[in-house]
Model the fold of this input.
Amino acid sequence: SELFGIPVRIIEDRVASEASERRKAEAAQREKDDLAAQQGMNAATQSMNEATQSMKHASWVSAGLVFLGTCLLIWTLMLTRQANRAAQAAVNATREIGQKQVRAYVGGSEIDDQSMFLALNINYDNGKYNIAEQEGPRDEINLVVTNFGQTPARNIRHVAVFDVRTEPFPIDDADRIFPTDDSAPPKEISLPAGGEFALSCRAARDIPAAQILGAINPECPEAIYVIGVIEYEDVFEGNWYTKFSLFADFAPLKDGMGENHLAITWRLTKSHNKST
Done:
């Protein structure tokens, strides 16, 4: 038996063989399924990565749009603010123009020549003019003051003086002619639109008759000067003033009867004529 071997073929049972084949097939299928699942997972991962990148780009675009929108909003607010300022400036300009058109404008319109003759005691006798001597201050010259505006003027304070001088009052004197004591306080009145009142110009000193008579002579270097200030308020609570400086220019004039008279022309001096 040791010299001769007998070959033996192992014949598997059919049932066992089929089971073995099924196991192999199932193992192969599992491998295929695992590979498919792995491939699906890789595809899903790649898709998620692509989606993440897309979301990243979208977020950058969104951030840029938000920044642009914010800039546009700020710009719009700035334009709106500028428009509001321009509208407010236009309203203020319109109101200011309207107030200037209708506010009070107070100034002198004319001097009452008759009051001047009375104040200076100018008498006509025998074809000549004489100046009567007078003790104490002379009477006042009346200056007609008119409100040329369309609304009333309030709290009008005024003062004016006249004198015989060789030159106009200095500006420094003009700024100090308001009385400073209680004996002659400045008057305060109101004046409607188009209204008038007589501003009394007082003599700055006791003027000698001979000096007044000389001032009437056109060849005399002296003249009668009037200077004054009018301060007032308008209905819009604005404060204004009018400063005036005048001198009388006398000239002989014959009337229809052939009698001589004096014609007076009031002229502005080169300084102290200003209004606001």
